[in-house]
Design goal:
Two copies of one chain form a homodimer. Chain A is an alpha/beta fold. In chain A, strands 7-4-3-8-9-10 form a six-stranded parallel sheet, with helices on both faces. Chain A has a two-stranded antiparallel sheet with strand order 1-2. A two-stranded antiparallel ribbon of chain A has the order 5-6. At the A-B interface, α1, α5, β9, β10 and α8 of A face α1, α5, β9, β10 and α8 of B. Chain A binds a DNA duplex through α3.
Chain lengths: 218, 218
DNA sequence: AGATGTGAATGAGTTCACAGCT
DNA sequence: AGCTGTGAACTCATTCACATCT
């Protein structure tokens, strides 16, 4: 593989995930081949955008025919790095951290939570799902031993920055930040925010005008 | 208020939420006035973009001086509809639904979960946080009585569409969908997806090339 | 004929740079 | 002098329309 991954837009990338999901659904229905037009019709996507998105990474279809589902799915999975297992650690085992550990969507996926950590001695040692909460001090060893590269940051806002820095120091290479904070983030660690309140505030804004509206995207 | 809210980009809107958060932080530090340049410097924002974003809604600053924090915060809150209480219902009280109900970030905010519902009789009746899980059949009455306009959809993927339609029928006006599904959504209901796996797959992609990278945005 | 892959055209979003106010 | 508010320039993203291949 050899694409300057820094040059691919997150928008494109997130759509690839959506495409993949749609394709798998069709595959599970026994379908083996589809055109961009039919795919778009089925899932309200843009056929042109589907083709343009793929075009960044090579040729995937057969002119005059369409796309072979098995082939396309496999190539998209490789493209997104879903052909290898990703070990993740959860930092902060409050309500959110626990929900993440128990999240059934990870079963049968290539994403796996290998440890949940917390600083609070009252939480350390608890059994959550199949994991025992580990003390935060052991972050470095755990990350190293488990080969974890992804960290899910689920601590309270005031301590998020400090926890983040510990994660970076421990060798974590990508972070999903659930804390409602603008992290001062390390340049070599891919850091993405998932912020519930920002989404709610967007809904709140649109609730003010009682006209129809659709965001779409993601 | 009178802006065609349909014409405001979610990008702008989400940044307004970020600005608001940053401004509150400064306010809590006793600061009363700030320039766009200083704000940008403090929180790695773009000063020009900050001004442009605000410009869509009127004039907020004083030329030669900057912005009055109290005034700006208050106006942004009104703008986003954060001056009124938002009642929310959670549909699907599995792990995620429970975490949402217990989420401490709602305390002291204008967002409040007034009910959690589930179809599973084994879950109905459970006490989660300060709520007792209600049977899904009562959705309509609960929405009506509580004046809930926002719904948090936290059911398994296969039943998400059907649950969504029930929510729309019950009078919900805006939905945050946590299920990994492309909903066929109703035109008059503002529907937004929050998708953990899509975010992880984005991280996965970038983990493949070990160069530095930053997404930024939201 | 039919669907892909792609340059060209359009549209959206961001940054620049400065006029205008305090 | 300093900072806002904003048209103009630019960059990024999406859509169109067609040449190209099966």
């Amino acid at each position: 593989m050899s694409f300057a991954s820094g040059s691919v837009s997150p928008l494109t990338l997130n759509r690839l995930s959506v495409y993949l999901r749609c394709l798998r659904r069709l595959q599970s229905q026994g379908i083996e081949r589809i055109s961009s037009k039919d795919l778009a019709g089925e899932f309200r996507l843009s056929a042109a955008q589907f083709r343009k998105d793929l075009a960044q990474f090579g040729e995937f279809g057969i002119r005059g025919i369409g796309y072979d589902l098995n082939d396309l799915i496999e190539r998209l999975e490789r493209l997104l790095g879903l052909d290898i297992a990703h070990h993740m650690v959860v930092v902060g085992m409050g309500n959110l951290g626990r929900a993440l550990v128990r999240y059934p969507g990870f079963n049968g996926s290539n994403f796996q939570i290998v440890a949940g950590l917390d600083v609070d001695p009252a939480i350390v040692g608890l059994e959550i799902g199949s994991l025992k909460v580990q003390p935060f001090e052991q972050l470095h060893q755990i990350v190293e031993r488990a080969g974890a590269r992804i960290g899910l940051l689920a601590v309270p806002a005031p301590v998020a920055q400090s926890a983040y820095e510990n994660m970076v120091a421990a060798g974590i290479r990508a972070v999903l930040n659930f804390a409602p904070v603008r992290l001062h983030h390390h340049a070599t660690v891919y850091t993405k925010n998932v912020d519930l309140k920002i989404n709610l505030e967007e809904l709140s804004f649109f609730l003010q005008s009682p006209d129809q509206s659709q965001p779409e995207a993601l």
